[in-house]
Amino acid sequence: MKLVARIALFGLFAVCMRCASVTATPVSDDDDVSSQESSTCRLSVDTTDENGNAIVIEYDISPLDLTTRVPSDEKSLYMNYRTKERGEDRKYDYLLNVCRPLVNLNQNSEGKTVPTGTMALQLPQDSNTTFVLGTDVRAELSSLSDGDLRYIMGPGDKGRTTTIFFFCADVGYGAPVFASEVFGQSSSEYYFVWNSCAACPVGHRWRESCSEDPSNTCMRAVKTGGVLVTALVILFALYFIVGLLYNKFAQGKSGLEIIPNFEFWSFCCGSVQDGCMFMFTCGRASGKPSPQYQSVTANIQLDSSDDSELDDDANEQLYT
After folding, report:
1. Beta 131-143 vs 149-154: how paired, if at all?
2. Distance (Å, rounded) from C-alpha 153 to C-alpha 160?
């Protein structure tokens, strides 16, 4: 229960970081929806709606099969998912696929022999040994009570098994992320999380716009902002280079004068410098000497005159 809850929370965190709003509730093995008809990639769930009416919810993760999306002329390296685990004493690469076994194994596993039907493969960085973590034998897709999906692969080498938790999210097709490894006395369990629009039920609004790129407003804004910043940097570089060449060869200028609009940029830099100085010193150190003040009474000569004469003398010294 604790392990599944941790994986669910991990998936929720990953979705929130990518601007998607998804609720991931911790579940246990007993939380599976009882009436299900499943294949490797498709799932039908008989359930009831909030009014008690019987409904059927359809799931289909087949769009995540890279062989259906990668052009035939692309290198076979891109036809399997590859994710990494990097720690102080753990450096592994993982090859994964869903709906079908890994393809072009000889190339993707650095030439190592891999059994047919392998769906998950571990590649240690410091050795030539590979470990099969899952196969297509008895691979099954199931739904949990909160609507999330669980994909369990068939057994691999020496009791190794792989489970992928899918979370419905408006982040495009997404990719698997390594979550944790649990060691047993005679087995090892590997867990991955996968945020994807393909994990949403058929007919879901995120599913209707499911594609390589995320469709949510946040991600579109980030991509648009990146394009605008890149365009501004390129335009400024062109302006600067063309201005330098024009001032040097057409105007015959030299030194700092070849900088386009040198007076303007020097004024801007000075203003920025003054503004930074004012902000970091709260106006106490502007680089200019602070005004000196004198006491008014220091310049007033007091004598034995009467009060009216003192007032006249003080006013005269104050306002002259």
Report:
1. antiparallel
2. 10
Residue 124 CB: number of other CB atoms within 10 A?
13
Percentage of the chain surpassing pLDDT 70?
65
How many residues does this entry show for the chain?
A: 320
The tens digit of pLDDT for each residue in 294-303 reads: 554 445 454 4
Q: Which two tokens stand for residue 192?
A: 């991955």
- CB neighbours of 22 closer than 8 A, spacing ≥ 6? 11, 12, 15, 16, 167, 168, 169, 195
Q: How far is CA 33 from CA 2, 36, 153, 156, in A?
A: 20, 7, 19, 26
What is the 3-state secondary structure of 160-181?
A: EEEEEEEEECCCCCCCCEEEEE
Statement: the pTM of the whole predicted model exceeds 0.90: no
Specify whether the backbone of 135 is left (phi greater than 0), alpha (psi in -120 to 50) or beta.
Answer: beta
